[in-house]
Design brief:
This protein has 431 residues and is an alpha+beta fold. The protein has 8 helices and 24 strands. It has 3 domains: 68 residues, no CATH class; 207 residues, Oxidoreductase, molybdopterin-binding domain (Sulfite Oxidase, Chain A, domain 2); 122 residues, Immunoglobulin-like, CATH 2.60.40.650. The structure holds cobalt (II) ion (CO).
Length: 431
């Protein structure tokens, strides 16, 4: 009732009841736990309607359906999380997961999306109890805690890591569908730690020390022999990745990182370095991680990851929805140094154009390339090839198979071909 006129007050428009506002009206003073949020959400929506993934973001979810300027946003969090609208994820099997290359931008792989490969699970290691033993052909055998390693002068580098088995199924034909499925066992991070040479100088190398055995403390006790003259200058003992301690699946609390070498030499959960005078011939360098040639011999100690590239947009499993401008995007890298040039073909390798390289262009690191293209709605076969600073050019599949045969599983770096049909569907083909 209006007090002046005595007439009934016109009905107020129904207020837009925000789920978020009703939540904050009953918000406890302490930051609610995930369970409290779920319970609250359950009473509001009924259990069936609760989307577990969205639960911590009810504020955002409410805002998304209306005007985000009308209600306060979500509260600050101790450890950040991504928008619930973003769903890029690793493709997992028990002992490996693949990076969604087609969903990423720039060159850094988010730590949570870095590929993983392990041989008997990810160990849970208390950094306070972890030790690194340096022994063998040294003047002073030493045992380090992580805290002691962190006291050494530190260094960091942006570097790619690639499993030597990346793209390995392609030896047998166009097996994979997406860039992630085929090439997702490579990622780039900023790795921080101490130089191997700094730690070995502390132990003092004796003249016979020419190889180094590195051993992990996982249940597989992953172990590799490395030639000292190739690793001493560049290898890092890393305790951090992208600004924070290593992820458990990346070797927490300590891993070896050998720039440009096959991923399995970058021993995770590192517990032992033994200086020796010849390779130790572990399982991982005899029955595994060797490349069988057509004459029955095998390549051994093939450490370097040769130049490679992949177009990530458009790539297998995607679909071009309309004709016209498309920015072709991809990643290129070389274990031998910097990417010098990336060339792109849209006609299956008949004609090539030079792609733009995005800064930074760093040695032994993923490098982003782009090329403007106009899709006319016809069939096309997209390819990219990387030329590195040594002058090496990424081979066609035919060139690679002529030299290596098809008995290999590791070190497949042939040019990837993506076929686009008239409906815009993109498929993995080998031409
Ligand atoms: Co190899």
């Amino acid at each position: 009732m209006d007090k002046k006129t005595g007439k009934p007050t016109p009905a107020e428009p129904e207020p837009e009841v925000s789920i978020y506002e009703s939540l904050i009206a009953t918000r406890p003073k302490e930051p609610p736990t995930r369970r409290a949020f779920l319970t609250g959400a359950t009473s509001l929506f009924g259990a069936a309607a609760v989307h577990v993934l969205l639960a911590p973001f009810l504020g955002h979810a409410a805002n998304a359906s209306g005007d985000p300027t009308r209600v306060p946003g979500a509260l600050a969090t101790e450890y950040g999380r991504r928008s619930p609208f973003e769903r890029a994820k690793r493709l997992t099997k028990p002992q490996r997961s693949r990076t969604p290359l087609q969903d990423l931008h720039g060159i850094v792989t988010p730590s949570a999306l870095h590929f993983e490969r392990h041989h008997n699970g990810v160990p849970l290691i208390d950094p306070a109890k972890h030790r690194l033993l340096v022994h063998g052909l040294v003047e002073r055998p030493l045992l380090f805690t992580i805290a002691e390693l962190k006291r050494f002068p530190s260094t960091s580098r942006l570097l790619f890591v690639e499993c030597s088995g990346n793209s390995g199924k392609e030896w047998k034909g166009p097996k994979g569908k997406t860039a992630q499925e085929i090439h997702g066992l490579t990622s780039t991070s900023e790795w921080a730690g101490v130089r191997l040479s700094t730690v070995l100088a502390e132990a003092g190398l004796t003249p016979g020390a020419t190889w180094m055995l590195a051993e992990g403390s996982d249940a597989a006790a992953m172990t590799r022999s490395l030639p000292l003259d190739r690793v001493l200058d560049e290898a890092l003992l890393c305790y951090a990745q992208n600004g924070e301690p290593l992820r458990p699946e990346q070797g927490y609390p300590l891993r070896l990182l050998v720039p440009g070498f096959e991923g399995n030499t970058c021993i995770k959960w590192l517990r032992r370095l033994k200086l020796v005078s010849s390779p130790v011939m572990t399982r991982e360098e005899t029955s595994k991680y060797t490349d069988l040639m057509t004459d029955g011999t095998a390549r051994q100690f093939t450490f370097d990851m040769e130049a490679k590239s992949v177009i990530t947009v458009p790539s297998g499993g995607q679909r071009l929805k309309k004709t016209g401008y498309v920015e072709i995007r991809g990643l290129a890298w070389s274990g031998r140094g910097r990417v010098e040039k990336v060339e792109v073909s849209v006609d299956g390798g008949k004609n090539w154009r030079t792609a733009r390289l995005q800064a930074p262009i760093l040695p032994k690191c993923h490098t982003r390339f782009c090329l403007d293209w106009r899709w006319d709605g016809g069939e096309a076969v997209l390819q990219s090839r990387c030329i590195d600073e040594t002058g090496y050019r990424q081979p066609t599949r035919k060139e690679l198979v002529e030299i290596r045969g098809t008995n290999s599983y590791y070190h497949y770096n042939a040019i990837q071909s993506w076929q686009i049909d008239e409906e815009g569907n993109v498929r993995n083909v080998q031409v």
